[in-house]
Amino acid sequence: MNHFPTTTERTVTTSFPAGFLWGGATAANQVEGAYAEGGKGLSIQDVLPRGIQTPPTEAPTPDNLKLEAVDFYHRYAEDIALFAEMGFKVFRLSIAWSRIFPNGDDDAPNEEGLAFYDRVLDELERHGIEPLVTISHYETPLHLARAYGGWTNRDLIGFYERYCRTLFERYGHRVRYWLTFNEINSVLHEPFLSGGIPTPKDQLSEQDLYQAIHHELVASARATRLARELAPGAQVGCMILAMPTYPLTPDPADVVAAMQAEHANYAFGDIHCRGEYPGYLLRYFREHGIELDVTDQDREDLRHTVDFVSFSYYMSLCETADPEKKVAGLGNIMGGVPNPTLEASEWGWQIDPQGLRVVLNDYWERWQKPLFIVENGLGAVDQLVEVDGTPTVVDDYRIAYLDDHLVQVGEALADGVDLLGYTTWGCIDLVSASTAQMSKRYGFIYVDRNDDGTGSLERYRKKSFHWYRQVIATNGAMFGRRADDVAPALQH
User: Fold this and answer.
1) What is the Cα–Cα distance from 433 to 438, expressed in whole angstroms?
2) What is residue 44's DSSP assignment?
3) SS3 assignment, position 237
């Protein structure tokens, strides 16, 4: 019987398309610092000194690394110059909502905050780097969380719409690619981080959680409509945390369990791309007594669907119907059960490059909208060493990880997937969102900063910096080559 060749049976010959957007990604709260400068208000990040591992504190604390982060606020020109040296075509950044509207419900925007992002965009334009802007990246203004209950309150739709209108009017002629919410489906797992909802997870009802999700979805659709009015040349995408879920065994019950787990994430893309709630989610609502407040205007708003789908990819999951095989915490940060065929990173995230090809094919076939990989990377402990008198990091493990994933991106392109670009997560070392550590490093650029807050904040090129520069310069022709093929790591 004829069969399609597997990855191991052939070598990909499809090249990356002309104009492919290579680059890197960051978030304001993890790189900017200057949490109290330039008229900025507090965000939920400023009371998470230990990341999502511990409940929020009442006030910012001195041991919160995010308060200073890696000082991109003052060093953005230096950092963008390094991105340009790698050949970035695109840089994904987020705008801190509380830098524009310090409390979130302010009547007028903060001009100092707007001017800061003007300067950042100026610098990107000077180097010919396309900005990809995330409007809300886990940075809900703290006042909106505490005074309104975060996205459980319908008032946040209007506050977010005002914020979006301000951004589109100010930057709409300069930014072609916008993302409405970062990893919007992550609110299912981290309601405070993702939705600014201060109610502890174990006390938050599904009714309130899904009402908050509905408000975010309506706000996202309104942002899409606004962009088309105020920035007609722009494209708006949703952003999803991709977690392909495999059945743990061939047992049909496990297959159904995996399907239902996938539905929880598909729903966000289905609504963004199709403009209405899918039947499987409506069934879930019926069977769990969830009755959402959905207005006729909401239904009309949701019809404003996105231009493209972006996503992060770090791991895959397994699921089973057998309760005895569900061991919480041993698989990945977002649940599931361990996959016995995969290895894991130092932080327990299972590594599955082929899962990226699965996601790309799955999303393309499901939604038939262009895709954009806006996060992918390896968090690892890096050791700064001297090679020929120059500080660097010999991160062959990171090169191997990214190379393995890019091979699978090439496979997906050969499969016919329409892909706009690829931005690695944490192109410069930054503070981890999940653990608030600096020691969990992702970047091509090492930042001299430690978990205890010490360090000079100086920047150093890692070996992967030069590898990625070659990947971009060859438009992906170099993927499939290992660290030993990288040109001398210390050339500048």
Assistant:
1) 10
2) G
3) strand
Residues 197, 370: Cα–Cα separation, whole Å? 32
Instruction: List, for residues 269-316, the tens digit of each pLDDT value.
Output: 999 999 999 999 999 999 999 999 999 999 999 999 999 999 999 999
80 occurs within a structural domain: yes
Write out the catalytic residue numbers.
375
Query: Residue 141 is which amino acid?
Result: P
The confidence score (pLDDT) of residue 5 equals 37
Domain that holds residue 256: 7-485
Is residue 491 one of the residues assigned to a domain?
A: no
The secondary structure of residue 422, as a DSSP letter, is E
Q: How far apart are the first and last CA of the chain?
A: 54
Residue 21 has pLDDT above 90, yes or no: yes
Phi, psi of 448 (to 5 degrees): -75, 85
CB atoms within 10 A of CB 29: 25
Q: Which residues pair with 247 in a beta bridge?
A: 319
pLDDT score of 354 more than 90:
yes
492 in a structural domain: no
- For 421-438, the pLDDT digits (tens) are 999 999 999 999 888 999
Domain contains 1: no
Find the CATH number of the domain harbouring 335: 3.20.20.80
